[in-house]
Amino acid sequence: MMAAACRAGRPGLLLILTLLLAACSSVPTTAPVVGSPAPTPAPSLPEEPRIDYFALDNPLHPREMVMVALGLLDTGYAFGGRNPEAGLDCSGMVSYVVEQVSGRRLPHNASKIAEITRPIPVSSLQPGDLIFFNTMNRRHSHMGIYLGEGKFVHAPSSRGRVRVERMDSPYFAPRVDGARTLLTTG
To answer: Which of 7, 35, 62, 177 is at a distance of 20 to 30 A from 105, taking alpha carbons?
Structure first.
């Protein structure tokens, strides 16, 4: 088309540009009535943000997570640790367990794991779900894997070993700040 415009010269180029611009414009279907209010645009609904949560493929994986996590009991704590040989921290333990069960990797950060996993009410926790705590005056600063019957397994920094705790303990009960599931549906 540009070659045709060049052969046609300047007047031809102007004609082609005018036609292109005219094709992009629109003509109102009815003339506005003088004194009538301007048409209001159709209301648009706000779009729900689409979140693709990290989810396990197999509905049996959460139960397997419980078994793998219990196999880590008494493993030493190491800040930043993500394997049992070197030691584990809380998010490193969860990330390690999920990878052992599913072959997929979570971030090594409790807050980031909370961001990408589906929130659920704490009252809906099932074995294999994730429980989050505010232990450092910031949300999701600690986490563990829920075992059932009000217990969870985690890698605490105090006393330095992976262990089971009760959610209703005087220390953890007031610090619970969320729960997440790795299943696509509740």
So the answer is: 177
Tokens at 167, concatenated: 């959610």
| Cα gap 29→167, rounded to integer Å | 66
Strand 118-120 vs strand 130-133: parallel, antiparallel, or unpaired? unpaired
Where are any strands of DSSP class E within the chain? 82-83, 87-88, 118-120, 130-133, 142-148, 151-154, 163-166, 176-181
- Tally helices (H) and strands (E) across the chain: 4, 8
24 catalytic, yes or no?
A: no
CA distance 90 to 82: 9
Q: Which of 6, 108, 140, 154 does the annotation list as catalytic?
A: 154
Q: Which of 24, 61, 90, 140 is catalytic?
A: 90
61 catalytically annotated = no
142 is catalytic: yes
Tell me the whole-structure pTM to 2 decimals: 0.73
* Model pLDDT, residue 46: 52
* Inter-residue contact 147 to 167 (CB < 8 Å): no
